[in-house]
Amino acid sequence: xxxxxxxxxxxGTSMARDPRTGRGPGARFLDLxxxxxxxxxxGPGGIRFTERQLYYETCRVLSPAASLxxxxxxxxxxxxxxxxxxxxxxxxxxxxxxxxxxxxxxxPPTAPRPPSVPDAAEPxxxxxxxxxLLVCQDRSIARMLLANxxxxxxxxxxxxxxxxxxxxxxxxxxxxxxxxATVHVLHDASPEGIGLPARVRAALGPVPGVRVTSIGLVPxxxxxxxxxxxxxxxxxxxxxxWPPGLRPEExxxxxxxxxxxxxxxxxPRLVRTVLRLTRGPRPPRNSMWTELRGLRATGFLTWPAS
Length: 306
Description:
Order of helices and strands: HHHEHHEHHEHHEHEHEHH
Strand order of the largest sheet: 2-1-3-4
CATH class of the largest domain: Alpha Beta
Number of strands: 6
Distance between the termini: 79 Å
Radius of gyration: 23 Å
Helix content: 25-40%
Number of domains: 2
Low-confidence stretches: 1-15, 17-22, 114-120, 297-303
Number of helices: 13
CATH topology of the largest domain: Dna Topoisomerase Vi A Subunit, Chain: A, domain 2
Structural class: alpha/beta
C-alpha cells in the first residue's frame, strides 16, 4: 500500500492561528520538522546542503517509523508534498536555515562556451595528468559537493554534466596523460541518469586507458537505502539498451516512470560515500617497526651514508 502523503494541517486555513505570527498549528509543526531536518542534514561536521536535500531530510523526520521497520528493501512515497514544503520554507525564510545553500542560478539558455585557450595566469594548468574526475547529473549536487570541499579532500575535480558535456579537449588530454584515469559519474536512479555514463563515455571518444564508472544511484540502491521515490509518466523506450549490470526488475521499475534522486541520500552519507569511492581504498597503515626500518631508505640526511 502506498503511504498517504502528508498535507500539513493549518496551512491555508484560519483555524487556531497564532495571533502573533498568523500561522496555524500545522505550519508551526512543519517549521519544527524543518529545524530538526536541517540539524540532521548538517551532521556533526557542519555539512552544507541544498533545498531538495532538506526536503528529503524533512520527509525522514516526518516518518520516523521508517527507520524502525525491518530492513526490507523498498522505495516509499515521500510523506510530504514538495509544494507544501516549499511554502513552509518560504514562510519561515530560507536565510534562517543554517547550512542551506542558495539556489543554483540558471545559466542563460544560449550562453556560448568560452573558447578553449590556455589561462594566461596558468598556461600549464592542463599540462598535468588527471587521475580521476567526478561528473554529477545535477548542478545543485555538484555545487553542494564543492561547497563541502569534496574536490579538495578527494583531489578530484567535480563537474556538472549540463555544463561539462561535451568535455573540454584539454581535460580529455589530461585524463589520457594520467594512464589509468577514472571518470566517476553520480546520477539519479532514472532513465536519464542511468544513461548518463554512456553519454560521458561517448563524449570521451576513443581515449585509451580512461575508464568511466557509475557510482549510482541505481534502483537497487534506492530500495536498499529506503529512499523516497517519485513517479512520473512512463518514459519512452531508451534509444540504447540498458547497462548490462541493470537487473530486469530494475528496468521494469524504471519503465513504470519511477525515479529516485541523489538528493534523497542523507547529505553526510552522500559526502562520505563520494569520498570513499573517488579516493579509493586507503593505504595500509605501517607499524612503528616498519617505519623505523624505512628510515634507512628515506633519503637525504636520514641515515649515515657509507
